Task: structure prediction
Amino acid sequence: MFAEQAGDTLIESVLLDETHIEFNKQSFLLKAKNEDENLNFSFKLESPRLFRFASFKPSSIAFFIYVTPGDTLSYKLDNSIITFNGNNEAHYNFFKELYNLNLNYPRYNEQLGISEYKKVHENYYKNKQQFLDQYAKNKNVSDLFYNKIKDVFKFQYINGILNQNSIPKGAITNYTEYLKGISINDFNRNDQDDNVNFYLALTKYLNIVSEEKFGNNIYSIESLDFQLDLINKNLVGKTKEYAITKMIFEFDSHSIAKDSKNLQDKIMIYLPQIKEEKYKVVLERINERLNKINNRLAENVYGSILLDIDGDRITLKDILKNQGNTIKIIDFWASWCAPCIEEIKSSHEFRKKLIQNKNVEFYYFSIDENQESWRKKVAELQEFGMNKNQYVIGKTQSNHLIAFFNVSTIPHYAILDYNNNVVLINSPSPNDTLEFNDIINKIEISE
Result:
């Protein structure tokens, strides 16, 4: 039972959510206060597990909390931080106390180098572990809590040192040395379904051992075979099912259209092995989508209706026809998406050169529901090349277009060749100039 502390009138809504919500986008519990209701709530729980809890309005820092069946607590908001009072309150306030230490998260820089970067992460991990040990001595916490937080820290560490978004390409020169102390056996567990860092670390491990073997071609069919073989030989149960699903999902998001037959063959092999419904649904959806395409846009996608900047309706087919014989890059974005806007600004010079030197055209498909916000943001971004090919996807027509291009997050990019054949459903960002140029060059050569 959770209850807002008496007299705390600040909070209007709260969010209690699973820590790992991949392939399941529905919130666990979102409760709002109105004239007739307070923010007290209860839910059934069979065994202790981690959740993420935050005030949704006004927003607070989201912390992990360790919930045990039978707990009854009150909570209050103070300076964007929620504090709990009640039985097992130490389980709930741990990450708040850890946050108050102001430990600096390690950041990579060239002066530091890759070996020292790993050592800095190790020290960061040790400092958190020492805090946990001291916290367990001073507070009333269970052994289950202590062991769960140890696991959180362990996989946060692995996730941190393997984060390819933080480490520049080529920084790791000796993979064997860098991966010392980490192996696939670390992930042969089925007790971490509430630990998001376990799944993040597993994905990054599979990608980095593939990078060691295949270099930049980690989304090749050979790399997928290698990953699936590694999973089959070393993992079991739900973790194995997740890893199979995740690697196929990642490959599908980055693959070129000519690989669709190979991918469908893999799905047909592994789908019968999947027992978890949420993973089975993901593979079935990928297979269903692949059945509809053969390098070409489906007719219902061609017929999708968008609105141009003046509010006039236009089909995707007419949009593409208007630009004729060009390589077409579609940028799915929104006016409220900070990463989208950052990439539009940072990639402007590259996009301008690409348009000038290659037969390339960029299209900007917004998923905004508020068209005025969309038009206002387009106007603000005119100097960054947003002065043409601006469209917003109509609510009733978005399903086919969004589903076909597998748009689950934004920014999201897709590439069509001169004849509107699908080259990449989920391409690299146009910020990644070397990789992006290589893709464009291959399309030119193939024509």
Notes: Residues 113-138 form the longest helix (26 residues). The two ends are 64 Å apart (CA to CA). The mean pLDDT is 85.
